[in-house]
């Protein structure tokens, strides 16, 4: 990362942020006006805040970073940006959860010319899956700064890593021994919370949520994925697994009560934390197993940065995005265990030293095979997840999956018609 103002301005010289964002802002306030960043209370935010003095020195403007929970953040955006507020400049957003809605509402500036017209920024260096997730209707609305993929956590003292989903199910059923306090597998079974993790099973069975604008969760591939997930947790999971979210499922594995657990790689610290884990020295990490369509896990931006379209500091907002997501910054933060989205960082083994070696290897494989979404890409994501999750619960509870999937397919089809109408109303 350039350490002098001259180096920084050279880095910025490939594109004029002011010209590219012309017309988005309403004039540029003086240097006494701070750049305001509204962000999630996340390890990435805390790491960047520690270095914010570097950026302030380079742009000669004070930066304030306010951190909120994910839900608080969404509420703050709804309140402020519905009123066209200018006291937010840089926005930390969940690209797959709210980006489409924010774009439809006109809250996010168009970054297409900025990222595409700046050779030194190297937009093509971002992994294709997270890069694709940053685009709405052909226009770039955010840049990814934190990514995640699923990983197969397993007990090395009980078994080896299965290479296929069929092997995973066989091993989980074989190791399932509730009488001895060990379940074959644990995972998210709660209706909406399970959808993101189930996506990798869906893709690896050859299915998808939506195909050509139409619901695809009633397809044979999707039904097979529903049946598989239900069988895995229904036959080998703990009691009450149908109601488990991340907060309930993760401790079951960390306390040594399950042989397998599929969930996001971002939570690995809780799995190996000596304060919360009883199996930290017995945990193995493996890539997502291959299904009938191969290993097709999600590889998504869990958090991204955008610019408030009403900001009066458009140019410095872009400079912040460029600095915070630069190759040097991504590599530096990834070396601290915060996975980024740049190919160059993942290709540099030195940036992976912040992760257990076996986990780093699994993450690289999953990133290479990854799909850029872990939920339906619609405006009303919460409602879509609720519909998609119904057959999941049916499968875990041992109920017939095919009728539940067909009913959900009809419901999602009707929802997509309404959602598309909302999308077109600008």
Structural description of this entry:
By secondary structure, this protein is α/β, with parallel strands linked by helices. The chain folds into two domains: 5-147 and 301-357, 3-Layer(aba) Sandwich (D-Maltodextrin-Binding Protein, domain 2); 150-297 and 378-424, Periplasmic binding protein-like II (D-Maltodextrin-Binding Protein, domain 2, 3-Layer(aba) Sandwich). Helix content is 44%, strand content 14%. The chain has helices at residues 5-12, 17-20, 43-50, 52-59, 70-82, 99-104, 112-116, 128-133, 165-175, 195-204, 220-236, 246-254, 268-272, 314-324, 327-334, 343-347, 357-369, 381-396, 401-424; strands spanning 35-40, 63-68, 90-93, 135-136, 139-140, 143-148, 150-155, 183-186, 210-211, 214-215, 258-264, 283-286, 300-307. A five-stranded mixed beta sheet has the order 2-1-3-13-6. The radius of gyration is 22 Å and the shape is globular. Mean pLDDT is 92; it is low at 1-20 and 22-26.
Question: How do the strands and helices of this protein lay out in sequence?
Answer:
Blueprint lengths: L4 H8 L4 H4 L14 E6 L2 H8 L1 H8 L3 E6 L1 H13 L7 E4 L5 H6 L7 H5 L11 H6 L1 E2 L2 E2 L2 E6 L1 E6 L9 H11 L7 E4 L8 H10 L5 E2 L2 E2 L4 H17 L9 H9 L3 E7 L3 H5 L10 E4 L13 E8 L6 H11 L2 H8 L8 H5 L9 H13 L11 H16 L4 H24 L2
Parallel strand pairs: 1-2, 1-3, 8-11
Antiparallel strand pairs: 3-13, 4-5, 6-13, 7-11, 7-12, 9-10
Helix pairs in contact: 9-11, 10-11, 11-18, 18-19
Organism: Crossiella cryophila
Pfam families: SBP_bac_1
Protein name: Multiple sugar transport system substrate-binding protein
